[in-house]
Design goal:
Protein name: TnsA endonuclease N-terminal domain-containing protein
Largest sheet: 4 strands, antiparallel
CATH topology of the largest domain: Trna Endonuclease, Chain: A, domain 1
Strand content: 25-35%
Radius of gyration: 21 Å
CATH class of the largest domain: Alpha Beta
Order of helices and strands: EEHEEHEEEEEHEHHEHHEE
Helix content: 25-40%
InterPro entries: TnsA-like, TnsA_N
Number of strands: 13
Number of domains: 2
Shape: elongated
Strand order of the largest sheet: 2-1-6-7
Oligomer: single chain
Organism: Nesterenkonia halotolerans
Pfam family, one: Tn7_TnsA-like_N
Number of helices: 7
């Protein structure tokens, strides 16, 4: 396969613009940087940009639409994702006689060092010839670097609702010292319901703090649950082989 004649521009972690070739671009450096563009806001726009705090990176990042926000929730909950960047870089090049320029939506660097580049598109847009050509070009570039490429069009609503419910446990450092460890100790079993864990609240601990501590353990992956079913006190929690570092 011939080397693609494309260039990459990104902003490093102190805000300096960096230009390099597609071949030499390094995901581990790009993912630590700043967005190469900030999604605009204007009267009458149909998408909803905003800011998302990612527990994976422990920093705020921009998103361009609510669909992109959904993908960020999934990435932030994914134990296999080590770093996340949004609007990570701009690719410029040519495909035959056609010039190409594109800013992908999300860059994921996984804990095993593999890389996934994500473009977020409503499924109705995929039939547009210009969108189809852009995605095909980006996919072919990723293939030359051994990167995974994903076009995200949406996810199961129940799964996203459950992840957002568990997200109250994303900031365990705000809880009283030792409370998360106490919650984790109650999960030292192969299978238990959420109700059973909640009833094991230590004496003197308020109900809300205990619930957050339990959900912090679930967010961290100490137990697993069926995310396709609505989260409730009868939800069954099962032992997990691994947890968030």
């Amino acid at each position: 396969m011939s080397k693609p004649q494309a260039t990459v521009k990104y902003c490093n972690e102190i805000g300096d613009e960096v230009s390099t070739t597609w071949e030499q671009a390094r995901a581990d450096l790009i993912v630590e940087g700043l967005p190469v563009r900030v999604p605009p806001t204007f009267k009458g726009q149909r998408n909803y940009p905003g800011l998302f705090w990612a527990s994976t990176n422990r920093r705020v990042m921009v998103y361009e639409s609510l669909l992109e926000l959904d993908r960020l929730w999934l990435a932030d909950f994914d134990l296999n994702v080590g770093r996340i960047a949004t609007q990570p870089f701009q690719i410029m090049g040519r495909e035959g006689a056609a010039p190409r320029k594109h800013v992908p939506d999300i860059l994921l660097v996984h804990r095993d060092k593999t890389v996934t580049l994500v473009d977020v598109k409503p499924s109705a847009h995929l039939e547009r010839p210009e969108v189809e050509a852009q995605l095909a070009w980006t996919r072919s570039l990723c293939r030359t670097k051994g990167w995974n490429y994903e076009v995200f069009t949406g996810s199961d609503g129940a799964k996203l609702r459950n992840i957002k419910a568990l997200a109250v446990g994303r900031r365990p450092e705000r809880l009283p010292p030792g409370l998360v460890d106490a919650a984790r100790a109650t999960l030292d079993c192969s299978e238990v319901t959420l109700r059973e864990v909640l009833t094991r609240r230590p004496e003197g601990c308020d109900v809300n703090s205990w619930r957050v501590a339990v959900l912090a353990c679930l967010w961290a992956g100490y137990m697993t649950l069926d995310l396709e079913q609505p989260l409730g006190e009868e939800t069954v929690l099962k032992s997990s082989a691994g947890a968030r570092a």
